[in-house]
Specification:
By secondary structure, this protein is mostly helical. The chain contains 7 helices and 2 strands; from the N terminus they run ββααααααα. The chain has 2 domains: about 80 residues, no CATH class; about 100 residues, no CATH class. Strands 1-2 form a two-stranded antiparallel sheet.
């Protein structure tokens, strides 16, 4: 059967091994057509249990911000963060065990993480827990990457695969923020939480910027390659 020219070919980002061909090194980040079997295996599914958990996390973002800034119900706000962390872990486990991984879920999960980070930064700045410049640095990284991803999309590329540095950075920041909130109180537990919170904050911010540079470098390499 011939291919339908009206249907665009989808591509996925892969890392090809570097080999020496004719005196030159070939390989690195390339874009390869998605396998047809993968396209039909359910990767386009939207209504799945892992995606439902991710949507639940998204609904928790405005609730968390209201609890933090409205009634200053910090205990309930920390509870929302704890539920968010559990569902973040659970949706990945369920997606693998139930074979319900999807492209929609791959986009929704990091989006929820980013929204929680932004919401927490806004709340902690307005509560005078962290300085404004720290929030600007973290949010500015995502703004720059959003521009790079938009440029990749115009060239027909999807977003680069999630790097372990990005996962480690998100892990550190999502642990740092509730500990920073606990550290605003007085007592033995807040005194212990405060230095740990700032350690996670410094490590998380450094890794966040480092991961952003890695993603930006991958995007630049793709944008310099011939258009597909």
């Amino acid at each position: 059967m011939g291919s339908n020219p009206a249907v665009p070919t989808r591509y996925r980002i892969v890392l090809a091994p570097r080999v020496r061909v004719g005196g030159a090194w070939r390989g690195g980040i390339v874009s390869a057509p998605s396998d047809a079997a993968t396209e039909m295996s359910g990767a386009d599914r939207i209504v799945t249990l892992p995606n439902a958990l991710s949507v639940l996390r998204l609904f928790g973002v405005p609730l968390f911000l209201w609890l933090l800034l409205g009634p200053h119900a910090d205990g309930w706000a920390l509870g929302v963060l704890a539920v968010s962390g559990f569902t973040d872990w659970a949706d990945g486990v369920l997606a693998r065990r139930l074979n319900q991984a999807s492209r929609f879920g791959a986009l929704l999960d990091p989006l929820a993480d980013r929204l929680y980070i932004v919401a927490t930064l806004v709340g902690l700045v307005l509560r005078h827990v962290i300085p404004l410049w720290l929030a600007i640095v973290i949010v500015g990284r995502d703004v720059v990457l959003s521009g790079a991803l938009a440029a990749l999309r115009r060239r027909g590329y999807g977003p680069p695969a999630v790097h372990y540095l990005g996962k480690a950075a998100t892990f550190c920041l999502l642990y740092a923020f509730p500990l920073l909130l606990v550290g605003t109180y007085h007592g033995t537990v807040p005194d212990i939480a405060r230095p740990i919170a700032w350690a996670f904050t410094i490590w998380g911010t450094a890794l966040y910027i480092w991961a952003g540079l890695v993603y930006l470098n991958q995007a630049v390499q793709l944008l310099r390659s011939p258009p597909r």
